[in-house]
Amino acid sequence: MLAYTLLILLAGGLQALAAHVKITWDIGYLNISRDGLSTWQAIGANGQLPIPPIYVTQGDILELTAINHLDKPVTLHTHGLFQRNSSYYDGAGMVTECGIPPGSQFTYIIETRNQSGTHWVHSHYGPEAIDGLRAALVIRDLDPKLLDEYDEDVLLTLEDWGQEPSNAMLERMKTTSLGRHPNYPSVLINGINANFSQPIRFLPGRRYRLRVVSMSFTYWFKVRLPGHAMQVIEADGIYSQTSAVDGLDMCPGQRYSVIITARESLEFNYALNVTFHSNFLARKPGLNPRYHHVPIVYRKDAPVKTFPLIEDHEVKWADEYAMEPQDKQMLLEPVDQHIVLNVKAPNRNTSISAHAYGDYAYAPVPVPPLYTALTTGDMALSPSVYAPQLNAIILKHNHIVELELRNSFAPIMHTYHSHGHAFQVVETGPVNSNSSIPVKRFTGRQPMRRDTITLAAGQYVRVRIKADNPGVWYQHCHQEQHNLSGMAFTFIEAPDVMQQTLRVPQEMLEFCRILGHPTQGNSAGHFGSDMTGIDLPLAINGTANSITGT
Questions:
Q1: Is 34 in contact with 42 (CB distance < 8 Å)?
Q2: Residue 232: φ, ψ to 5°
Q3: pLDDT tens across 141-178, in order?
Q4: CA 33 – CA 49 distance, rounded (Å)
Q5: Residues sharing a CB contact under 8 Å with residue 329, sequence separation 6 or more, in sequence order
Q6: Distance CA 250, CA 7 (A)
Q7: What pTM was estimated for this model as a whole?
Q8: Do the beta carbons of residue 202 and residue 255 sit within 8 Å?
Q9: I want to staple 420 with a disulfide (CB 3.0 to 4.6 A). Which of 155, 377, 435, 473 is the partner?
Q10: From residue 69, how far is each of 28, 44, 269, 287 by CA, in Å?
Q11: Distance between CA 218 and CA 135 in Å, rounded?
Q12: What's the CA gap between 32 and 221, in Å, rounded?
């Protein structure tokens, strides 16, 4: 049973400053049909799917315990939380930890003092999250000015759900034409088949904060509520200047909060439109795009208001790059390090389907790179101790880093999700001059920050971070079949500072021993540049990458 325990911390006899919120996920297999179409072995917690959302208040300490009843390791990643001074709790399997072995349990300690907003939790070990191990995470705000902007909180989670377990789906991907998924997934809204979405009750004149979480791993969602104005106030946990939009177009992993003011009349009910779409699935009536509706009920017996159909280009969609942060953080400058990474082509033969941001398809190695960075002394500043397939990029402490991602080769959209940081989006534009993609520069004001963006076909995006969070941070495409086939790289951020400030819990090191992984030395568990015992990296063809500055 899901355990919620609040332990009040008293300080100097004053009112409680924080609470410890203890939640336990007993993780195991479930034979279940979530969409009413297919039954297969999924992964849930406490014997249930969907896993209930987690709610905490800013300043709370979340103690999330995972009990592993699978036959393989498991990890939990709090998507959107920076894990400042605790990179080892980031949950990236074989990056910041070896994983929790079968039959073991572990408690992640998640601080929320400096973050609030809308996030989610999912496994980051292999494809376990695709099979169900995921849930929303809401960190309620304390700012009374923000709380005064709305009367009620409403959560809307959007998921894609396959017709078969992830291992079968990924195997099919190897023999399916470029980027084409062999089966069209179902859509789940708030954890159930979208064809049977539960109604949301609106009361006249009330202001609703609709938190929308794309817990998708492959596909995009559009969300609109005709007859109602949407005011965007948050993107990926970062509060923005209020902007009026007609709808949201969300890539896998993104989150938004919008304020919707209910109409004054009880005359009509309405339909919240949710559209599933993908440019790398063949268009097929009823399947791509696929249209679903969530009933917005003002009065039980009221008719549903109808609206004329409009084309997508007539809709004012939220611009995921162009919003402005509420805190008005200035443009990070001057830039100390420039990095250019090109999306690389799938490399296909009878058994390989690989994508890459780096020169090699990312692949795990015997020693998680966090442990390499912590145990190799001054050598941790040298790329030679990190295997090539980690696509490791070393960042110096407090340097301003500009990263340019270029989708020049792939004919499909990708995404970019950053662990450990929310990046400033400073420019987007076309890779080639004959493209219709416009150039947008955001360097003359306070650029929007977020942790997940779309990288369209033929588009480049430039982002900036300040390397002020020492740790090892996984950077990857959030379309999971691309991530698992190698579309990732790692930031090795301030390893010299890391060695002075991070102390990995002994329990995590013991888990590595149980699973047969070294916890010291270079990627192979040796010292120096000796990589004996590691498989040769898979090189991916494509335009060369570049790193300038130190």
A1: yes
A2: -70, 130
A3: 998 888 989 999 999 999 999 888 888 877 776 655 54
A4: 10
A5: 424, 446, 449
A6: 37
A7: 0.93
A8: no
A9: 473
A10: 5, 10, 45, 35
A11: 16
A12: 24
CA dihedral of residues 486, 94, 499, 463 (deg, nearest 10): 30
CB atoms within 10 A of CB 503: 10
Q: And the tokens for 242? A: 């209020």
Tokens of 81: 């939380």
Q: What distance in Å separates the CA atoms of residue 420 and residue 82, rounded to the nearest whole number?
A: 4
Q: What's the rounded Cα separation, in Å, for the pair 84 and 163?
A: 38
Listed in order, strand segments (DSSP E) in 172-269 are 186-189, 192-193, 200-201, 207-214, 220-224, 230-235, 238-245, 247-250, 255-261
Judge whether 95 and 369 are in contact, CB under 8 Å.
yes
Per-residue b or e along 53-90, where b marks 16 or more CB atoms closer than 10 Å to that residue's CB: bbbbebbbbbbbebbbebeebbbbbbbbbbbeebbbbb
Answer yes or no: is pLDDT of 81 > 70. yes
Q: Give the C-alpha separation, 113 to 516, whole Å.
A: 36
Residues 6+ positions from 12 with CB-CB distance below 8 Å: none
- Would the pLDDT of 48 be above 60? yes
Bridge-partner residues for 340, per DSSP?
404, 546
> How far does CA 303 lie from the centroid of its chain?
38
- Per-residue model confidence as pLDDT tens digits over 226-259: 999 999 999 999 999 999 999 999 999 999 999 9
Both tokens assigned to 422:
């929310």
DSSP H helix total and E strand total for the chain: 6, 35
Residues across the chain: 550
Check: CB of residue 451 under 8 Å from CB of residue 117.
no
In 10 A of CB 254, how many CB atoms?
A: 29
Complete DSSP assignment for 89-129: GS--BTTTB--BPTT-EEEEEEE-TT--EEEEEE--STTTT
User: Between the CA of residue 63 and those of 76, 205, 352, 353, 505, what are the distances in Å?
Assistant: 12, 38, 39, 38, 14
- Tell me the three state secondary structure of residue 297: strand
Asked if residue 453 lies in contact with residue 416, where contact means CB atoms within 8 angstroms, the answer is yes
DSSP label of 188: E
Q: Is 456 within 8 Å of 471 (Cβ atoms)?
A: no
| Residue 374, C-beta contacts closer than 8 angstroms, at least 6 positions apart | 380, 495, 498, 499, 502, 504
Mean pLDDT, residues 64-72 taken together: 98
Sheet holding 270-277, edge to edge: 200-201, 290-297, 270-277, 220-224, 247-250
Q: Which amino acid is at 483?
A: N
Q: Residue 226 burial by CB count (10 A; 0-12/13-18/19+): exposed, middle or buried? A: middle
Q: Which residues are CB-contacts of 48 (< 8 A; sequence separation ≥ 6)?
A: 30
> pLDDT at position 174, please?
62
Beta bridge mates, 468: none
Report the half-sphere exposure of 332 (CA within 13 A, side-chain side). Answer: 25
**Do the beta carbons of residue 118 and residue 136 sit within 8 Å?**
yes
